[in-house]
Structure formats: C-alpha cells, structure tokens
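As described in the Methods, two query proteins were run sequentially through the folding procedure within a single session, without resetting any intermediate state between them. The first query and its resulting structure tokens are shown here.
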Amino acid sequence: MVTRTLTAVLHKEEDMYVAECPEVGTVSQGCSIEKALANLKEATELYLEEFPLPELEKPLLTTFEVASSA
C-alpha cells in the first residue's frame, strides 16, 4: 500500500463545507471541515482503488490578487 499526500481545497456553501482534491478530481461535502475532509478522504481512497494514479509530482500551490469593481 502506498501513502500519498494530496491537496484538499475547501469552501463553504450555505451550511455545508465542500472539499475537492484537484489532483484526482474527487469532491465531497460535510457539515464541518473535519467531516468534509473525512468524506473526501474516503471518496478519494475508493476512487483510487478503481483508477490507480501514476506517481504524481507535488503540485505548486499559490495565490494571486485581481482587481474587481464589486
């Protein structure tokens, strides 16, 4: 069994947290950040059982600013 470190991106939609793994494309949700992450982990593990990934390089994660009139 191989252990991988993947990225989770979370945002809040109304009363739920949505968690997404950009490397795999899995998405899940939960009523708390912890639950959303636990659900994402489970969904990703199930996905990877069916569709194993080749060795991945660690993604570069950064932020940027944009100007907006709103």
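Immediately afterward, the second query was submitted; its sequence and tokens are:
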Amino acid sequence: MNSKTLATVRKFKAADGTFLWQPGILDGQPARLLGYPVIEAEDMPDVAAGTFPIAFGNLAGYLIAERKATTILRDPFTNKPFVHFYATKRVGGQVLDSDAIKLLKIST
C-alpha cells in the first residue's frame, strides 16, 4: 500500500479498541498490520471506489527475471565531437503462484 492508504489504515481499531497497525519496535524492523509486515509502495493507488490499493501475500511468489548481458550501443554521429554510449538491459517479471498474492478491492 502507499503512504496515503497506510495513513487511513493506521486509524483502524479492533473490537477491543486496540489498533490493528503496530509500529516496528526495534530499529530496522518493519511496521505490522495484524502481525504481518507492511511495506510502503508509492506505485499502489490511493483508496477510492473500484481500486486495488492493498496487496497482501507472500511476495516470494513473484519472479523477477533479468538477462545478465548489458547491450551497449555507440553513437558517434549525434553530438560531434563527442561520442555517446547507450546501455540497455532487459528485465521482466511474472507471478509464479497466483494464490500467494491477493489484492483488496474497494467497492465504495
């Protein structure tokens, strides 16, 4: 979830009045929501109708694949008398186990 969603979730309380979100006790320890670590990702959308602002699960079910080779292209023509170099690397990813990651949908 992003920081704006986290600010909303931090206000939620259980039936006995305790907060569902707990800050990390030690330095470097993540904050927890219902006992599970919380990671902020600003790429996630804000809370609104029809959005998926919270992802929950074991993110080890996601694979990031990258090629080891970096391609370098030499461009001696664009900016004389200098030579430009362009470096590219192919990176991709996919979900390995769709049951490991679930998204929370906000209805209204």
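The two ends are 18 Å apart (CA to CA). We note this only descriptively and draw no conclusion about the first query from it.
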